[in-house]
Amino acid sequence: MDHKLTPEEKRTLLQIARRSLELAVRGEKLPPLDETALTPHLMESGASFVTLTVGGDLRGCIGALEPYQPLALDVREHAIAAALEDPRFPRVQPKELPQIEIEVSRLTVPHRLEYKDADELLAKLNPKVDGVILRDGWRRATFLPQVWEKIPDKAEFLAELCYKMGAAPNTWKQKHLEVLIYQVEEFHE
Question: Which structural domains are found in the chain, ordered by start?
Answer without folding.
Answer: 7-107 (3.30.700.20), 111-183 (3.30.1490.150)
